[in-house]
Specification:
heterodimer; A: 189 residues; five-stranded antiparallel beta sheet; 5 helices; 16% strand; B: 652 residues; mainly beta; Methylamine Dehydrogenase, Chain H; Immunoglobulin-like; 2 domains; ten-stranded mixed beta sheet; six-stranded mixed beta sheet; transmembrane (chain A); membrane (chain A); Copper chaperone NosL (chain A); transmembrane helix (chain A); copper ion binding (chain B)
Chain lengths: 189, 652
């Protein structure tokens, strides 16, 4: 297979580097607004922790019998940093190999990672939204409280939002660079 | 017959035109755009905080300007059952004095802290008139955090006025009184045995903590009001005096005899030097110093034993007297610090004194006499000029920072605007009725915001819907941004306001305490989580360590308490969010409720005197399930064998 052009090698390296901010910036955010919370409640999900109004959100959630949200609940927080580390390692190997398949492989890897994360979040959201304490104070017939995967959703008096945060946006930018690289590669063929 | 007809006709004509002869009412004083100028739309904030003394309610109220809306009643010297101030075990020491627990006082004046003669609005100071004290309120939490008693004082009216960097808060005594070991004296030995003490209370620049630095032993006059010099007159303090006749009965007549009383000028920088040089004398005096701790959420009261006094008859060049006509009430210094305005409440003119001339007169020893060795300056040598025909009964003066002064006229019930340099009267606006203090945002500082003026009135009469014999005191808001004052708003107030100060909301609104971090709660009774909730017996004391969080108390079923036990409910509000207080009250307790802020711990003491099951509940509508936030406590007879137990939610 042919070697990568210099431009595409640089693009690949940059894409690999966009994984690094994941260690220092929040990756995902969930926000809630209600008439009583005009300023909103905001929870940020990092590589190995939660921050923001987690306690307040738990306080609100206890009325509907939702499980307590805490770092200890999510095994992902213990291994996500290694997964991303491994991806950076693989990305660097692809960069050093410098073949055309490198960019396709890394784009595939990032896409698979993104899909896995979304599936994982959906499953957690489903579990939190459906497995409610049968003795909860507020029970609404037929109501579940699964947060939106991405975007907005009204849940009783709360409008919930879920979406990427800084780290993920940077990563999405990295994927954009790879798409550009693939386009250049395809055009230059 | 003919004469009678003419008389009848004249009478009818008189009756017909009589209503037309009534003077024009207030309605005509309002112009078209007044409502728009005071309208603060829903969701918008007022531009200024106005901290208003509560007078005989012993509290402060927090009012927004220009809307005139009351935002909070802030308890200071009076108990406040609404939030447990003076009832909770933690707050009781705040109202302790050398005479024991005092549940009430009369708060007249506000001083907002300044740096370089400009509001920094870190603290608000207030005076207790009746049992002399000064309080400090933290404007980040709107809570009274310190109260210091003033010994050798009675009627703490000339207080609390502050120096331009809040170095000192002063407290001049209205009543001169006998002090020390010599207190059982005949009242008519006033001139020999009575003293008029002026106290200088130092303020720690970092923490705000007060400390009675020194007292000046002044003649037995009545000290009425005061203002610090600022900018060029920084280092001096000016106290108005009346009853320089030194009468002790029927002061209405006997203290109004002299043509001139005095403004007492105090060189406090010099006094400070004398203190440093060890020229003061330590004297025995008992007074309480009460401090609130925002981390233990409780107060301590310490009894102090002595005070440092300075004798100005021996220590020369601290005290000078400026003659001022007719029992001056307010003494006010303009933003530059050059002019000192004395408001002789019975005088036909307003004298304006010059600080520069005062220094020159002192330099030249231009004295007309002395009082116990303290020089009396010549009136004409210190005078800048007199405002002619200003109105009747001048009381107080504030400034707009554009060279104008505004004086309240009690008797002629008006605000009079005049030019400080030219002394020319520029405008008058009626007040409703009999204005006492007036307040311009930043008005007493070196940097007034000359946009609004509030008149705080002593008489209300017909201004609002009547409420029986006792009426709300009225206030009026004027726009003073133009040449002519414009009446904008008339609003009722809380208590009996005297002085008020206003400052831009932007100074403090973004630094407000929203809740107390639970990890910083160092109360010995604090609980850090629901698992710590418990009940312990110690002899006849039962300590209930209780948590409150939406929407339950833990524990909420308690048994094993006996008649005559001292029950202490130590309630910790575990919430960590803004605007989620919880309350606590138990049936029949001879005390007030607790209102506990998020992250705070507060204690209610209760001695049950009968057998029964006593319900308790949350008194602040906290949440959707607030009505479910309740519990029971069983009281058994003394010596009962019902064992102590407690639980939450495990019966079903």
């Amino acid at each position: 297979m042919k070697s990568l052009s210099l431009t595409n090698r640089i693009l690949l390296l940059l894409a690999v580097l966009t994984l690094i901010p994941a260690y220092f910036t929040p990756l995902w955010q969930i926000s809630l607004w209600a008439p009583q919370y005009p300023e909103g409640l905001n929870m940020k999900i990092w590589i190995d922790q939660l921050s923001g109004n987690v306690d307040q959100i738990n306080g609100v959630n206890h009325y509907i019998g939702m499980k307590h949200i805490g770092v200890e609940m999510f095994p992902e927080f213990t291994y996500l940093k290694y997964v991303i580390g491994a991806m950076i390692g693989l990305g660097l190997i692809f960069f050093l190999v410098g073949k055309r398949w490198s960019i396709y492989s890394f784009l595939g890897l990032l896409s698979a990672f993104g899909i896995a994360i979304l599936v994982d979040m959906y499953l957690w959201g489903y579990e939190y939204g459906h497995e409610l304490d049968p003795k909860a104070a507020i029970k609404v017939e037929g109501m579940s409280y699964q947060p939106p995967l991405i975007g907005y959703k009204q849940l009783l008096n709360f409008l919930a939002y879920s979406g990427p945060d800084t780290g993920s946006w940077i990563l999405i930018g990295g994927m954009g660079l790879l798409v550009l690289a693939v386009y250049l590669d395809w055009k230059g063929k | 017959m003919k004469t009678n007809k003419w008389l009848l006709a004249a009478g009818l004509i008189a009756a017909a035109i009589a209503p037309g002869c009534k003077p024009k009412g207030a309605q005509s004083a309002i112009t078209g755009d007044a409502a728009a100028k005071v309208y603060v739309a829903p969701g918008q904030h007022d531009e200024f905080y106005n901290i208003v003394s509560g007078g005989f309610n012993g509290q402060m109220s927090v009012v927004g300007l220009p809307s005139g809306r009351v935002l909070k009643i802030l308890p200071v010297f009076s108990v406040h059952p609404e939030n447990g101030w003076g009832y909770s075990e933690q707050s009781k020491p705040m109202l302790n004095t050398s005479l024991g627990f005092v549940p009430w006082d009369d708060l007249h004046h506000i001083a907002i802290s300044t740096t370089n003669a400009e509001h920094d609005a870190r603290w608000a100071f207030g005076n207790a008139n009746n049992t002399p004290r000064i309080a400090r309120v933290d404007l980040n939490s709107f809570k009274t955090v310190e109260i210091i008693e003033i010994p050798n004082s009675a009627g703490n009216h000339s207080s609390p006025f502050i120096t331009q960097n809040t170095e000192y808060v002063v407290a001049g005594t209205r009543f001169s009184v006998p002090v020390g070991d010599n207190q059982d004296v005949s009242i008519d030995s006033y001139k020999e045995n009575f003293k008029g003490y002026i106290s200088f209370i130092g303020v720690n620049q970092e923490t705000g903590e007060m400390n009675l630095s020194f007292q000046i032993e002044a003649p037995p006059f009545n000290f009425d009001l005061a203002r610090a010099g600022k900018n060029k007159s920084h280092g001096w303090f000016f106290f108005s005096t009346y009853n320089t006749e030194m009468a002790h009965t029927l002061l209405e007549v006997n203290a109004s005899q002299k043509d001139k009383d005095f403004i007492m000028a105090v060189n406090w920088k010099k006094a400070e030097e004398y203190v440093k040089a060890g020229k003061g004398t330590k004297k025995k005096a008992r007074y309480a110093h009460n401090k609130w701790n925002e981390e233990t959420h409780s107060a301590t009261s310490t009894m102090m034993e002595e005070v440092l006094t300075l004798d100005p008859t021996v220590l020369k060049d601290i005290v000078y007297f400026i003659p001022c006509p007719k029992s001056p009430h307010g003494t006010d210094t303009d933003p530059t610090g050059e002019y000192i305005i004395g408001s002789g409440k019975l005088a036909a003119i307003i004298p304006v004194f010059s600080f520069t001339k005062m220094l020159a007169a002192i330099e030249k020893k231009d004295f007309e006499g002395d009082i116990q060795g303290m020089p009396v300056l010549k009136y004409e040598s210190v005078l800048h000029g007199e405002v002619q025909k200003p109105g009747l009964g001048p009381l107080h003066t504030e400034f707009d920072g554009k060279g104008n002064a505004y004086t309240s006229m009690f008797v002629s019930s008006e605000i009079v605007k005049w030019n400080i340099e030219t002394l020319e009267v520029l405008d008058r606006a009626p007040t409703y009725y009999s204005v006492g203090h007036l307040s311009i945002p930043g008005g007493p500082t070196g940097k007034p915001h000359g946009k609004y003026l509030v008149a705080y009135n002593k008489i209300t009469k017909d201004r609002y819907l009547p409420t029986g014999p006792e009426l709300a005191h009225s206030a009026q808001l004027y726009d003073i941004s133009g040449d002519k004052m414009q009446l904008l708003l008339d609003f009722p107030t809380i208590g009996e306001p005297h002085y008020a100060e206003a400052f831009p909301a932007s100074l403090i609104k973004d630094r407000q305490v929203k809740f107390y971090p639970i990890e910083k709660n160092h109360s010995p009774y604090a609980l850090k989580g629901i698992n710590d909730a418990r009940v312990e017996r110690k002899g006849n004391q039962v300590h209930v360590y209780m948590t409150s969080i939406r929407s339950n108390f833990r524990p909420d079923n308690i048994e094993g308490v006996q008649v005559g036990d001292e029950v202490y409910f130590h309630v910790t509000n575990l919430e960590q969010d803004w605007d989620v207080p919880h309350g606590f009250a138990i049936k029949g307790a001879n005390t007030a409720e607790l209102l506990i802020m998020p992250g705070e711990t507060s204690t209610l003491k209760w001695i049950p005197d009968r057998v029964g099951v006593f319900p308790f509940y949350c008194t602040d509508f906290c949440s959707a399930l607030h009505q479910e936030m309740q519990g029971y406590l069983r009281v058994s007879p003394k010596g009962s064998n019902v064992s102590l137990k407690y639980s939450t939610g495990d019966s079903e």
